[in-house]
Structures are given as C-alpha cells and as structure tokens.
Write a structure and sequence with these properties.
By secondary structure, this protein is an alpha+beta fold. The chain folds into 2 domains: about 140 residues, Immunoglobulin-like, CATH 2.60.40; about 190 residues, Oxidoreductase, molybdopterin-binding domain (Sulfite Oxidase, Chain A, domain 2), CATH 3.90.420.10. About 10% of the residues lie in helices and about 25% in strands. It contains 7 helices and 23 strands. The strands form 6 sheets. Strands 4-3-12-7-8 form a 5-stranded mixed β-sheet. Strands 5, 6, 9, 10 and 11 form a 5-stranded antiparallel β-sheet that branches. The longest helix has 11 residues. The chain is globular, with a radius of gyration of 24 Å. The two termini are about 30 Å apart. The N terminus is likely disordered. Bound molecules: the ligand Nc1nc2c(c(=O)[nH]1)N[C@H]1C(S)=C(S)[C@@H](COP(=O)(O)O)O[C@H]1N2 and molybdenum atom. Ligand MTE binds next to strand 2.
C-alpha cells in the first residue's frame, strides 16, 4: 500500500513522475516492462551452466561475496587504538529487527578476552548467605529464558551533540544491536546464594583485561537481568562476552558486563567507594547527572541514508528504519519527508517486543524533489522522541551520552542523502 503525506498527489503528477523513472503506474507493477529484453533474463548466466560447490564447502556459513560491504566499521579518529575502541553496526544494510551475530557492534575497554569456557567461573560473594562459584556446566542446570533486547551504548549519537557530524546511520546510530538472548534470570542465581537484607546493590565484574565492573541496584538485578550464554541461538561471540554476559534490559550498554566472572552483593553503589567508574552526563551549568540508566525512546531512518541513497529515481519509494525504548515497546513512529511540516504514521512490521528494536516502513511516491527525512518514536509510556534542540535546552551541549534526538537526512534530486540539522 502506498501512503501519501498530506494531499494525495494528482494522478497526472504521479504518472509524470513514474514515466520519468520508467517505473510503474498506479495498478501496474514496479518491475520493468519487457520492451528491450534484459540480457540478465535472456542470457544463460554462468551459475546456471554448472554445478556449484557441494555441502561442507563452508561448514560454518558466511554471507555471499556480493555482501562484502556489509560489515562493522569503525571511525579511526575517534579513539587512539583498536583495543579500547568501538565499531558500528551497519544499520543501513539490515532489515527486520534482529542483528546478525557477526554484525553486532563491539565496544571494548581492553580488547576481546579469549575465555576458555572450561576454565570460566561465575562467583557470587559479598552480602549473601552462601558464597557460590558456578561452572558453565552448573549454570546449564538452571531454568533459562529467551528474550529479544536491544543493547545501546550510552555514547550512541554522542558525536552529534554539537551538530550533524558523521555521514551515515552506521556511525550516528550504529552503537546498537538487537539479538535474542538465552540466559538464566539473575534472580535465580542470587536466590541460590541468598541475599542478606542489607544487600541493595550488586557489583558486576568482567574477566577481561579491563576487569570492567559496574554497580547495579538490586531492584533491577531481581527484575529482568539475565546471565546469558547464547545470542540468536548460538554461543555468544567472543566480541559479545563469550561464554557469559550480563543482560540489563533497556539500560545503557555499559552495564551489560561481558565475560562476567563475579557478582558482589553490597549495601551501596561501588562508585561511593570510588572503586568503579561510571558514565555521567555533564550539564550546561557544570553539574553532572550521575545516573541515567534507562535508554529513552529513539528512532532513525536507515534507508534512505547517506550510505544508502535512493538509486531508482522518482516513483514508488520505501523509507524504513528502526525504533526502540528502554521503557517498553514502540506502538507508533511518525515519518516526515518535508522536515516536519507534515507527519504521517509509519507502518510497523514485525514483532513488537518489550525493550527490543521495532521496524517501521513508510511507502510514498517520490516526486524527485529534495526531501528532509525524519522519524519520531512514541513509546508505550506515551513519551515522544524529542528534537535535538529540545534536548539541548534541557541538557546543554557538554554531554556525550544519551543523545536520543530526532535525526534528519537531507535527500537531493539525485537521491543522495546527507546528515543535516534543521531547526
Ligand atoms: N567486561 C566488559 N564488559 C563490557 C565492556 C568492556 O569493555 N568490558 N564494554 C561495555 C560497553 S561500554 C558497552 S556499550 C557494551 C558493548 O557491548 P557489545 O560489545 O556487545 O556491543 O559492553 C559493555 N560491557
Ligand atoms: Mo558503552
């Protein structure tokens, strides 16, 4: 179904636009009419002339060689080296809601730990009745659950606070992935150890060179946190914390400790003891906000975008993107093609899961004129994604973290897209 913004374009203008692109007219198909035969359909292609490789040519499958551009990419000038760095999910090349395991962005403080699962242990200590040590085999005897959750680094879109900077949604919004986790509810493991009444916080620690640790309030730990060992059905990738990672649904990625080896129950956040670091948000007045745990609703149009221009000319055009909220689901996304003068409801498609990415589409008939594309997410609490200017009014421009402002792509007559800001 084609949706039109505001006034439906006249059939005359629709036909003119379509004819210019050699595309379909209303009621017909988008595919080319067979006036001049297309060599690709007339010729016998090489792959139809002989047998391909047999089974076992790739015991662990990889994508087609024609998809070689669909990879994680980093921005070399952002960090001094690749060990304490980040790369980005190629959102513009994906569809649906699941991030394939090999394309999940990576953020490491001390590189990827190469953990031998036979030697890996998870310890629970501190304010508990029984200090416990679990092997991987022990953990597999607990009941497990499956959940699809997004993980967004608090620094996602952080380079965009002062203005439009990076040219591609992979770089502006790609510090996010959305996978199905199989894991054990953390509350079951904590119950096994028995939390003392004074235990109000946990400190979670990774087995990597950074020994990265974070403090999490007990309420969240007992609510929906998971100790996960599978992503999208297979073992976690080393980059994502093999063999165990903490899943903290809806909360900033920083707290999702990878290669998790220890959980200490305490009566205060470890920040208070200055033993751990945290991510803070510096405000305009010089004060810093200590805790911004939940990731607010956000969305981005992934196609078209700077890395994925419109190449087919005017006529039927598909806009698509993703939206998510750490507070729940995304019942609605609005799309504008004229910089916010008129908005239309996008079509949501695919599962609508709590604290997961959602996919939206907006199909329209492009007249070939420049576009200013934006998407605006509404979450299940009624919260509406703010503009970047609204965010700056509250937060100033000193922040790096928690930028969930509305993204604008400007598309020219040729279909090329650019990262811009409008006010
Ligand atoms: N042990 C450990 N856990 C970690 C990190 C780390 O460097 N070491 N980085 C954190 C940060 S800042 C983020 S955003 C997420 C990134 O998860 P990913 O690499 O699966 O994308 O992991 C978090 N967990
Ligand atoms: Mo992060």
């Amino acid at each position: 179904m084609i949706q039109y913004k505001g006034k439906k374009p006249s059939r005359r203008s629709f036909l003119t636009g379509a004819a210019a692109a050699g595309a379909a007219v209303a009621g017909a198909t988008i595919a080319r009419a067979q006036g001049t035969p297309d060599p690709a359909i007339v010729n016998m292609e090489p792959w139809a002339q002989y047998n391909g490789v047999g089974v076992d040519a790739a015991p662990y499958g990889v994508p087609s060689k024609y998809e070689a551009d669909v990879i994680r990419r980093n921005v070399p000038w952002l960090t001094a080296d690749a060990v304490s760095s980040v790369n980005f999910t190629p959102l513009h090349a994906l569809d649906g809601i699941i991030t394939p395991n090999g394309l999940c962005f990576e953020r490491h403080h001390a590189g990827v730990a190469e953990v031998d699962p036979a030697e890996h242990r998870l310890m629970i200590n501190g304010l508990v009745d029984r200090e416990l040590v679990f092997t991987m085999a022990d953990l597999l005897r607990f009941p497990r659950e499956n959940h699809v959750y997004f993980l967004e680094c608090a620094a996602n879109s952080g380079m965009e606070w002062a203005g439009a900077q990076l040219n591609g949604c992979q770089f502006t919004h790609g510090m996010i992935h959305n996978v199905m986790y199989t894991g054990i509810p953390l509350r079951l493991l904590l119950a096994e150890a028995g939390i003392k009444t004074a235990g109000t916080w946990i400190m979670v620690e990774g087995a990597d060179g950074a020994g990265m640790n974070r403090s999490i309030p007990m309420e969240k730990a007992l609510d929906d946190c998971l100790i996960a060992f599978k992503q999208n059905g297979e073992a976690l990738r080393p980059e994502q914390g093999y063999p165990l990672r903490l899943v903290v649904p809806g909360w900033e990625g920083n707290m999702w400790v990878k290669w998790i080896r220890r959980i200490e129950v305490g009566d205060q956040p470890w920040y208070a003891r200055e033993e751990t670091s945290k991510y803070t948000d510096l405000l305009a007045n010089g004060q810093a906000r200590s805790f911004t745990w939940v990731m607010d609703a956000k969305s981005v149009i992934t196609n078209p975008s700077p890395q994925a221009p419109i190449t087919h000319g005017p006529g039927p055009t598909v806009i698509t993107g993703v939206a998510w909220s750490g507070h729940g689901t995304i019942p609605q996304v609005d799309v504008t093609i004229d910089g916010g003068i008129t908005w239309a409801k996008a079509r949501m498609s695919g599962p609508s899961l709590d604290k997961s990415m959602h996919r939206f589409y907006y199909e329209f008939d492009w007249d070939g004129k420049p576009l200013l594309l934006q998407s605006r997410a509404h979450d299940s609490t009624g919260y509406v994604q703010p503009t970047k200017d609204q965010l700056r009014e509250v937060r100033g421009e000193n922040s790096i973290y928690h930028n969930n402002g509305i993204q604008t792509w400007s598309v020219n007559e040729q279909g090329a897209a650019e990262n811009v800001e409008i006010s």
